[in-house]
Amino acid sequence: MTWLFLQAVVSGLLLGGVYGLVASGLSLIFGVLRIINFAHGAVMMLGMYTSYWLFVLVGLDPYLSILVTGPLFFVLGMLIQRIVIEPNRAAAEHNQLLLTLGVALVFENLALVLWQGDFRTVRVWYSGASFLVADVLVEVPRLIAAGGAVLIALALWGFLRMTDAGKAIRALSEEPEGARLVGIDVARIRGVAFGIGSACVAVAGALVTPFFYVAPDVGETFNIMAFVVVVLGGMGNFLGALVGGFIVGLAESLGAAFLPGSLKQLVVFGLFVIVLLLRPEGLFGARRGR
Amino acid sequence: MAGRLGLLLVVAALAAVPPLLPKYALEVLISVLFFGYLGACWNILGGYGGQFSFGHAAFFGIGAYTSTLLFLRLGLTPWLGMLVGGVLAAAFGLFAGYLSFRYGLRGPYFSLVTLAFAEMLRVVAVNWKAVGSSLGLVVPNRGSAPALFLFADKLPYYYVILVMVLAVLGITRALERSRMGYALAAIRENEDAAEAAGVDALSTKLAAMAASSFLTALGGTFYAQYFAYIDPSLTFGPAISIGGLLPAIVGGAGTVAGPLLGSFVLTPVSELTRAVLRGRAGADIMLYGLILILVISFLPNGLVGWIRSRRPAAGRAA
């Protein structure tokens, strides 16, 4: 029993790191654009396919593929924002949300058309590597993914704190009117934020390919998890998303260890509904006038 | 007057033409009416009340599962089972709605919580052996048995869904001109202002939720009887929630004819793409996504809004 619990905690924390990076990107986009990006999971899926094809065609290691997926999806994210969302800035909130849903439908089904629905996996030499810590199994690829995700998320947090571009993003997120008044190019920063958010989730996708299947609808699961995490951590709260990622990872993995079938998802959704109802501003956020 | 005559002609055509159609065209037309129906149900809460549910599959699935289980286990005719399903769905809608509205969830937060409720029901259905788990349930078709909502060919199903669509459009029309309709519109435009003006936002939204979920559940029973098979992801999955929301948005949310018009545009396009690009699964939904993006970008008020804006002097047509 204790062993099962410990194993579940370790698995949950490792999964949670990845959720954290996925959700950080989503949270950043929400903070700046004030829209819930339904295309986030689809972008992750495309990031996973990019790593997959780079591995299959050129033999590039999934971890090294980050150097390609990061910049590539930063540009793609900026383009999505520039072409699809920015022209409809003045439209109602729900219409912007539906735009991202449209983008998700296009991406997901484009992948289905191009590469069919088969589950694909990347088999690298370290795919099955693992070690034991006090009888608890730690899979190396999952450890690297979680560690890498947390490092990238923290680096991004530093970027948001230290650099001018980062400060502009935070300014826009906290005080849109004020940001415009002090001369920040608001439209450009929105594009940058969408680009960074997309790069985050695509890189998270690359990090999980050594141990996770790739399929056109793989992003949906991560998308819904990221919604849960972002709400938990507080919409627009970057570090909150990282902490929320660990909480959701733990909830899911403990649910999987102690509940039959796929009922673990019920734990996660239950947590989601409770947080939405009781603290829609997130666990760590202060109640803010919207 | 001209509007009423046109409406009569459309209804007459919808009633008279189908027996003459080839089987495939009839199937497409049934799909058109089915998604138009779902859109019209969603429209009551989402279009008129501005509460964007992303989880109407919850009500749809409750309807499909309730009538099918009552039929399989107790032999109750789905004609009655669908009413039971409707009542259960409305009860669930009131429960979910009360929680969400009571705690002040608006806009995207409401969308997320409805999505979560539908997903929870899907997970429960997948894991519950007594309701068939992920294998789903088969409705045994013993040939033609009108008393059991079973027909040997497609035409009677067509007339059933036609009557359902016309009924829900009639309800929407009546709602639009009722006190509740005005209250809903006021909430959609500005909830705080509506409350200040004396609108009871909570009970108005709950009433819309109950009506919308009851009617959506009836669509679930129709689906189960028509396709004779249901499973958790077909009935509780996001595809059904989106399948109802899209025709309403594309046609014009908050208008009577919008959802049906939207379905008349979207459904044949997707059916045709699927037929032409056989073996290329996904192409139809990809096109769906593109149309959604284009409509929101260029016709933000949907087809009906666009038609109205082109002839402002002609007054309002239904």
DSSP summary: helix tally of chain B:
14
Largest sheet entry of chain A: 2 strands, antiparallel
What is the fold-level CATH name, i.e. the topology of chain A? ABC transporter involved in vitamin B12 uptake, BtuC
The sequence of SSEs of chain A as H and E is: HHHHEEHHHHHHH
Helix content of chain A: over 70%
How much of the residues of chain A is beta strand, in percent? Answer: under 5%
Q: What structural class is derived from the secondary structure elements of chain A?
A: mainly alpha
Strand order of the largest sheet of chain A: 1-2
The name of the CATH topology of chain B is ABC transporter involved in vitamin B12 uptake, BtuC
Give the oligomeric state of the chains in this entry, treating copies of one chain as homo and distinct chains as hetero: heterodimer
Description:
The complex is a heterodimer of chains A (290) and B (318). Chain A is built from 11 helices and 2 strands; from the N terminus they run H-H-H-H-E-E-H-H-H-H-H-H-H. Chain A is an all-alpha fold. A two-stranded antiparallel ribbon of chain A has the order 1-2. Chain A has a single domain (2-278), classed as ABC transporter involved in vitamin B12 uptake, BtuC. In chain A, strand 1 (130-133) and strand 2 (136-139) form a beta hairpin. Chain A is globular and about 60 Å long. By secondary structure, chain B is mainly α. Chain B has a single domain (25-314), classed as ABC transporter involved in vitamin B12 uptake, BtuC (Orthogonal Bundle). Chain B contains 14 helices and 2 strands. Chain B has helices spanning 2-16, 23-48, 57-74, 78-102, 107-127, 154-176, 179-189, 191-196, 201-227, 232-236, 238-251, 258-276, 283-298, 302-310, and strands at 137-138, 229-230. In chain B, helix 2 (23-48) crosses helix 11, helix 6 (154-176) packs antiparallel against helix 9 and helix 12 (258-276) runs antiparallel to helix 13. Chain B starts with a helix and ends in an 8-residue tail after the last helix. The A-B interface holds A 35-36, 84, 87-88, 91-95, 97-99, 101-106, 108-113, 116-117, 216, 220, 224, 227-228, 231, 260-263, 265-266, 269-270, 272-273, 276-278, 280 and B 50, 52, 99-100, 103-105, 107-109, 111-113, 115-117, 119-120, 123-124, 126-127, 238, 242, 245, 249, 280-286, 288-290, 292-293, 296-297, 300.
